[in-house]
Amino acid sequence: MAAARREADRAAAEAEREEAARREVARAAAEAARVEEAAAARRAAARAAQAAREQEAREEAAVAAWMEAEAPEHEEPAVLEAERAAVQEGGIANQPLPVPAPPIPAEMQGAPAWA
To answer: Where is this region: Disordered (predicted)?
Structure first.
């Protein structure tokens, strides 16, 4: 009877070890899947960043080509380069157009400023 009990205990311990090994394999597989998913996300983010950099370079080249095509023949290269730099920095595009002051009525011309 004792031998049967020892055999049953041994079989139960073996089954428990096998179940623990299966759980460990499943945990390792899940961890590997998480690592692979994170790596895929990093690769996708890197591809998106590269595409954005390429798009920005294409846009800058298009602006430069447009400015070169639209530039009057008499413009100095330094002026063109300054305008190109301002456009690339967003300086010109973000500024409102100047509004001319309204004409001063004839009766107000020459009047003191406090009048």
So the answer is: 1-22, 47-77, 93-115
